[in-house]
C-alpha cells in the first residue's frame, strides 16, 4: 500500500497502470509505478531500474506498456532525487541506499502470495544497469535473470 493506502490507477492502451508513493527506511517518499496486463495475471515479473535523471514518465513508461502488453507485470520506482521522489534533484547521497530501496520494494512485491511462483527479472538501463547488477549481487539466488541495456 501507499503512504495512506491510496493507489492511483488508470488504463493506458489496454494496460492497467498504477502509481503510489512508498516510504523508504530513511522516511523519504519514493514514487513507484506498475504496468499490468489488463485481463489476466502476469506470466512473470520485470523490475525496471532506470538511468540517471530518468523517471517513470520517460523510459519506464514506454517499456512498461510494451512489456505488459506481452503479458508481463512491470514494476518501477523513481530513486531518491529523481522524478517525483523526495530528495535533492539528481543527487544520490548513497548508491548503497538507492540499491537497498530497490531491493526492499522489489522483494516485497515478489513475496506477495500471487507473485511467489513467478519468475523475477531485472531490467536495467544505463545507470540502472549498475543498480540491477548490484541488486543481483545482493541476492543472487533470488533473481531469475537480468537484462542490461547500455549499462553503466
TrEMBL record:
Q: What Pfam families is this protein classified in?
A: Hydrolase_4
Annotated PANTHER family: PHOSPHOLIPASE-RELATED (PTHR11614)
InterPro entries, per the entry: AB_hydrolase_fold, Hydrolase_4, MAG_DAG_Lipase
Membrane-traversing stretches: none
Q: What is this protein called?
A: Serine aminopeptidase S33 domain-containing protein
Which residue range or ranges hold the Serine aminopeptidase S33 domain? 41-152
Q: Which organism is it from?
A: Rhododendron griersonianum
Amino acid at each position: 500500500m501507499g503512504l495512506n493506502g491510496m493507489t492511483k490507477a488508470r488504463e493506458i492502451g489496454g494496460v492497467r497502470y498504477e502509481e503510489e508513493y512508498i516510504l523508504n527506511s530513511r522516511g523519504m517518499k519514493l514514487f513507484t509505478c506498475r504496468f499490468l496486463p489488463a485481463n489476466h495475471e502476469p506470466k512473470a515479473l520485470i523490475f525496471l531500474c532506470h538511468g540517471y535523471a530518468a523517471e517513470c514518465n520517460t523510459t519506464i513508461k514506454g517499456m512498461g506498456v510494451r512489456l505488459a502488453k506481452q503479458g508481463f507485470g512491470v514494476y518501477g520506482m523513481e530513486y531518491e532525487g529523481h522524478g517525483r521522489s523526495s530528495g535533492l534533484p539528481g543527487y544520490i547521497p548513497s548508491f548503497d541506499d538507492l540499491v537497498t530501496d530497490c531491493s526492499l520494494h522489489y522483494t516485497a512485491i515478489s513475496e506477495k502470495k500471487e507473485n511467489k511462483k513467478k519468475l523475477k527479472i531485472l531490467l536495467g538501463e544505463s545507470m540502472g544497469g549498475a543498480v540491477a547488477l548490484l541488486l543481483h549481487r545482493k541476492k543472487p539466488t533470488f533473481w531469475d535473470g537480468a537484462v542490461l541495456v547500455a549499462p553503466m
